Protein: 4-dihydrotrisporin dehydrogenase
Amino acid sequence: MSTYVITGASRGLGVEFVKQLKDKGHTVIACARAPEKSDALQALVDNQRIHSLKLDTVDADSIKAAVEKIHQLAPGGIDVLINNAGIAGERGQDTLTTTAEDYINVFKTNVTGTSDVTRALVPLLRQKNTRHVFNISSILGSVENTTAGGNVSYRVSKAAENMLSRATAGQLASENFVVVAVHPGWVQTDMGGGQAPVTPEQSIRGMLSVFDKVTQADNGTFVDFEGKKLPW
Structure:
């Protein structure tokens, strides 16, 4: 069994990750800004295999404190990091109406937060041989597939996160890391909305199947929850 760290684990896809990984018998360290406020998450926590702790991905002190706690919970290292924390930004805004403040706010979580958490946890990942990092991205970050300007702060942030994934994969390839950007599908969550065609259960089941099958050859790829390779 493996040890997973998941960010953004208090709701939506994050909680479903915890649930399905618990069912599979893995150890999970579920991180969120306020994990104690999530009834769904706390119902899964047993403080044996499933732990929750506070981690605000845009706060350096919070990341440092969380990493110290993770080291206590998993002194032998962690196998998998799932960077799931993300925000949508101002919906309905386009390239002509999105402000610098909105770009910066979304980038702090979706790009620099992912970078800071990954950098902080690489030493613990190095302690194991698995060394998998999955960044939950979006097809909306695909430059090739973009033809409209809506939700631009989110789109641009996910394009940047994809570049971060690719660059991290290249940098850590010699250490046998596998870093993959993953599109979870259009999912029925607070972010995706009720009209989305994919349930959280379907999305997570698919992603975990993909995660279980990755090899070094998949390092630096961009795929969806069914394993289909996507255009950058």
